[in-house]
Amino acid sequence: MHAYLQLMRIANCAMAAFAALIGVLIAFRIIFEQPLQAFPFFEAGSVGIAVMLVTGAGNTINDYFDVGIDTINRPDRPIPSGKVSKQQALFFAAFLFIAGIAIAGFINLVCALIALFNSLLLVLYARNLKATPFFGNAAVGYLTGSTFLFGAAVFGMEGLYALSVLFLLATLATIAREIVKDIEDMEGDRKAGATTLPILIGKKQAGFVASALALIGIAVSPYPYMNSMLGEYYLPLVGIADLLFIAGVYAVLKNDPALSSKRFKLAMFMALFAFVAGA
Q1: Domain match, 34 and 130 both
Q2: Judgement on whether residues 221 and 111 belong to the same structural domain of the protein
């Protein structure tokens, strides 16, 4: 059992489930002016379980396709160590995907469609997109942002609209940070024969792409307040997040990707806190 939990990366799954529950809570507070007693606890719990299963399936299928690399770099992982066979890992991933999509289907059609699409994307990422410049970064960004969106999908299309800006901010910030991390890892990636965006177009140009994505996120961040979707606490807190994003942009343009990555990560947490406080 422990080996299968390792395959799932259960702590990572729990964090994803928590993010989805935050998505449910924020969407509920934006859409409804009701006390928390009216909160859809059963649906929220179902969302958390579905996200844990699909995330665990994605981590498992990632290990399935990475077994060659892990045999060299991480021989203690369940598949290279022989604790779980490749076939067992594949069947386990399929079971988790099917179970996660099925639970999402019991919530509503929107949740089911997001779970199905994300499951297919996780397989495609593990098999092909991970080694594809920018598209691999974009897939990680979307999957991160869609965790919040999946929680909001409990309330159907109205929930998706309510969290559209948080989804966009999380997606853009994650893509930018992934590109910055690729800049930081250029030397090792080049030796390993990888083709990342910085290797393909150059460190400086990749920094410009990451900066542009972060600045787009900053530009749209005031929208929930201006559209009366979030309260007065949102604006000053998201302003702090925006300043951290700007600091991250400055760091990457000054050729300090390690510092930039840390600032982007901190800015993402502050932006999430701003949404929670504003809701």
Answers
A1: yes
A2: no
Across 52-62, average pLDDT: 94
245: closest CA among 186, 182, 179, 169? 169
User: Phi/psi class of residue 22: alpha, beta or left (left: φ > 0; alpha: ψ in -120 to 50)?
Assistant: alpha
Return d(Cα 28, Cα 220) in angstroms, integer: 21
In 3D space, the residue among 54, 78, 74 whose CA is nearest the CA of residue 2 turns out to be 78
Closest CA to 177 of 135, 218, 141: 141
**Which of 135, 161, 187 delimits the end of a domain?**
161
Cα-based distances in Å from 180 to 55, 66, 95, 98, 223 = 24, 23, 35, 34, 26
> Range with the lowest mean pLDDT among 23-32, 41-50, 53-62?
23-32
Separation of alpha carbons 62 and 122, rounded Å: 8
